[in-house]
Amino acid sequence: MTREAPGITLNNGVEMPSIGLGVFQTPPEETRSAVAAALGTGYRHIDTAAAYGNEREVGEAVHASKGGRAAVFLETKIWISDYGYDETLHAFDKSAGKLGIEPRSLGCWLARFAGVRAARVR
Question: Catalytic residue among 43, 52, 83, 85, which?
């Protein structure tokens, strides 16, 4: 029996699971199984980033999971080289493509520049 962790309601009303799996430094060849195992035990929040090099494997595991994409809160981050309005939009389109989702369905995306953190939540 799996049990879901309580969520946090963000200022815009979106519910974000309070516990998630981060895949920083998880090799791509191990990411799919790690995410699948986490989702199988009840995790519903997966945190990745373009720089981690494993967004595609995160997306594959999420789409193959029992609850599918609708059951998972996805978070990703872009890299500092994608600074600028058009570059940032392009970077998120690219990340969404790797994750296999529509950009607007991403739970949270982060852009960090020069010590400033900007976040957008669906």
Answer: 52
